[in-house]
Amino acid sequence: MIILDTCVIRGMGLRSSEADVLRAIRETGTERIAVPWMALEELAAQKAVDYNNAHREAARALKKLKRASVTDAPKLGDPEPEKVRESWRARYGQLLEVLPTSERALREGVYREANVLPPAAVKGEGDKAVKVGARDVAIWLTAVEYAQEHPDETVYFVSSNHKDFGKGGAYPPPMDKDVEELGDRFVHLTNLDGVLSQFAPDAIVDEEVLWDLLRDYAVHARDEALTRWGLLRFNAPSAPFPAAVKPRFSTMPTMEAIGWAIPREVVAEPREVTAARAYRLGDHEWCTVNVRWQLTGNALFNSVIEYAASFWDTRLLVPVVKGGPLPRILDSGTPYAPDADAVVWPAHQELTMALGSGKTSSVWAVFSQIINGVGQPSFGSWADQSAALLGDEQDEEGTLEGWEEAYDPDADSDTFDE
Hints:
With 418 residues, this protein is α/β, with parallel strands linked by helices. Helix content is 39%, strand content 22%.
């Protein structure tokens, strides 16, 4: 178990490379990573304090604006520090387990602070001297108690607070008694570099191998994207997303799509790969990498279907082995509409191969091919244009058989809509 102190987490951005490696260590099951409850509350409390200070400054600024303004000044809502704390608890909770801080640890923290017993201490001199450290004691004892309660595990306590916790050498009393029976099962590291070098040493990944792995993962990336946004569910709200419309079919460069009309036909392709870094985690090599995905397909815009594309930026943890576990998404942004000229629009053959079933006898599949290939054909020419677009070859089921029966060109519009 890796247990991080407040100062280590505070100095590490949640989107930093160090955080990525910690996610990789956790996601691959190499080691568990945790934070004492007291340390998490310290972090959340500091964010709330910063928020309250900013709110007070904003209130003063608005008061000054109100005095100087000849119109109504904007109003500032009441401060909501608990929402800030909840938000940061949730963010850190996505990266770290939270270890409960026991009542004994909290009581001992207050006792040691009152008696100035390490890691509690006195700050300042004379009349300005203040006893501090109850929280440090609680954090320290949370790590110690976990090691005592799990004799089959080694605990790696990581803290850069050298002044209070030392550097992992000889501890002052009573800290020495705290770890006396733990022996080499309690390892004190003073920075994250020690953790990363031990549990995630650097490795080398070939760029072409990485691109091949990402292409293999493309279908899963599409499915993951559809679960997060763009999946059109009838009788249920969908998540609209911006998309670039293929110029041939529309004069509007970008529009907000309601969803993908035919999800299984959406094509995902890796377009840009950056910031790749490989590690050996356990017995395998993994790579963290930024990937920009291009998703193309028929999208629904109000009552109109247009061929469109969206870009999606992700941070992935990729196993550097063919046929290995699926990559994990460490982080992702919201989809956005690229410039139409930045899109590599798939060829008709690639779209046909991307069909989930591969059977173009599906009415929707043929309809999709027509829209992609010939725009808005007249109803009476659908079958002929489908045959011309898809070729004369037919599978054993008869690629185009039943097309005219399934969709009678003379059918009324209500029947067709159904």
